[in-house]
Amino acid sequence: MIQPVNPYLLLTPGPLSTTATVKEVMLRDWCTWDRDYNNIVQQIRAELVALATPATGYTAVLMQGSGTFSVEATLTSAIPATGKLLVLANGAYGDRMGEIARRIGLAVRIESFGEISPVDPDRVRRILTEDPDISHVAVVHCETTTGMLNPVAAIGAVVKDFDKTYIVDAMSSFGGIAIDINALRADFLISSANKCIQGVPGFGFVVARTKVLKGCEGNARSLSLDLYDQWRTMEEGGGKWRFTSPTHVVRAFAQALEELQQEGLDNRCKRYLANQRYLVEGMRKLGFATLLPDLLQSPIITSFHSPAAADYSFNAFYQALKQHGFVIYPGKVTVADTFRIGNIGDVYPGDIDQLLVAVENSYPLARRNSGHV
Questions:
Q1: Radius of gyration of the chain measured on its C-alpha atoms
Q2: CB atoms inside a 10 Å sphere around CB 248
Q3: How far apart are CA 188 and CA 206, in angstroms?
Q4: Residue 127 burial (CB < 10 Å; 0-12/13-18/19+)?
Q5: Could you point out which of 76, 128, 147, 196 has its C-alpha 20 to 30 Å from the C-alpha of 288?
Q6: How confident is the model at residue 367 (pLDDT cuts 50, 70, 90)?
Q7: What's the pLDDT score for residue 370?
Q8: 3-state helix/strand/coil string of the chain
Q9: How far is residue 277's CA from residue 261's CA, in Å, rounded to a whole number?
Q10: Under a CB-based contact definition with an 8 Å cutoff, are residues 268 and 259 in contact?
């Protein structure tokens, strides 16, 4: 059997480092017409619903492409021509939902809460009071621009007080943080194969309230991103996709789901929390400050202020860390110079300990190689 060799550990919010067993199952080819394969699809759909809530009345649909494809599929399919979307934005991924809405011609209001503040449910209440034309509300649960968690349960309570449809982008949190879509009162919850469930890139998925999804027929502004038609085909075809299915990725995801069940969602969340706690404690000891206060921080990814030294270069720091076997993310906020380190995937506290040693050794090297000295 071919043994995968990874030159570095991905400390990003996805794609992320996967187990050897997830990679291994992709060595077999599958036919999209075979019942054996489509049974895997149906099992995945059922397991996603069970992971999302113990309540009845929900379904799951898989969609080819990155997580953003599933976000766009939801927005283009859920909102009718007479609807209006409110996007609650406090980072690049909330802003992206607003851009999607504009591109597909939706009536949209984008409400910005800044990059380092959570969405305020009281402000959402005021907006819905003053703008009764709003029919749908969308928010990002874990805004990976910063690593912030938004209060999606409190927001959902407000949204349902006004009887609006609620869309939650849980791209980087689902499978790593306990989420009950029914308790959140969400109608659509969106995520991706290559995040906390620890699969590989290739498709996203939407867990939806079945009654609401059934009402989306004919809304879509896109053929390939028609979420309703994709769901109907999977329902009627026993797991069949409308267009070419990413078979190897689907099989890897089934294995990743099995490994999540073996680890247990609570244990996975505890592991990510431990990773993030060790990371922050260690980085602070090395002189790095976090962008967000601990109260607002998710266990998924953490933003750190870049060193103030004139000879610091993120690219040099990145390359030095990569030589030590770790890949991190550049910053994405506009209000500060930052970089980001994720700790999800097949990552453990021992890996974080090794990363901290690499950071301590790489920072002086990065300064020497920055071109300023």
A1: 21
A2: 16
A3: 7
A4: middle
A5: 196
A6: low
A7: 53
A8: CCCCCCCCEECCCCCCCCCHHHHHHHHCCCCCCCHHHHHHHHHHHHHHHHHHCCCCCEEEEEEECCHHHHHHHHHHHHCCCCCEEEEEECCHHHHHHHHHHHHCCCEEEEEECCCCCCCCHHHHHHHHHHCCCCCEEEEECEECCCCEECCHHHHHHHHHHCCCEEEEECCCCECCECCCHHHHCCCEEEEECCCCCCCCCCEEEEEEEHHHHHCCCCCCCCCCCCHHHHHHHHHHCCCCCCCCCCHHHHHHHHHHHHHHHHHCHHHHHHHHHHHHHHHHHHHHHCCCCECCCHHHECCCEEEEECCCCCCCCHHHHHHHHHHCCEECEECCCCCCCEEEEECCCCCCHHHHHHHHHHHHHHHHHHHHCCCCC
A9: 24
A10: no
Tokens of 80: 């009718």
At which residue do the structure tokens 């969340």 appear? 269
* Tokens 């890996």 belong to residue: 351
Residue listed under structure tokens 């609650």: 88
C-alpha angle 84/89/91, rounded to 5°? Answer: 150
Name every residue whose Cβ is closer than 8 Å to that of residue 163 and which is 6 or more positions away in sequence.
none
Contacts of 299 (CB under 8 A, 6+ apart): 176, 177, 269, 272, 273, 275, 276, 343, 344
- What are the structure tokens assigned to 328, written together? 């991190």
Dump pLDDT digits (tens) for 64-109. Answer: 999 999 999 999 999 999 999 999 999 999 999 999 999 999 999 9
Rounded to the nearest 5°, which phi and psi values hold at 191?
-150, -170
Rounded-to-integer distance, Cα 346 and Cα 324, Å: 18
Give the span between the Cα atoms of 86 and 116, in whole angstroms.
20
